[in-house]
Amino acid sequence: MCKLVMLLCCLICVSGADGVSVSVMEGDSVTLHTDVETNQQENIKWYFNNTLIARINGNLSDTCTDVQCNEGTERFRDRLQLDNQTGSLTIMNINTTHSEKYTLQVIRGSNNETIFNVTVIDVPAAGMKRKAVTEGESVTLDTPEEKKTNDVMAWFFNDILIAEITGDQSKICTDDQCDERFRDRLKLDNQTGSLIITNIRSTDSGLYNLKIKSSRNRYSTTSIKSFTVSVTDSGPSSTAVAGICAAVAVVLLVVAAVGVIYYHRRSSIKGEYHLHIV
Question: Membrane-spanning residues where (predicted)?
Answer without folding.
Answer: 240-263
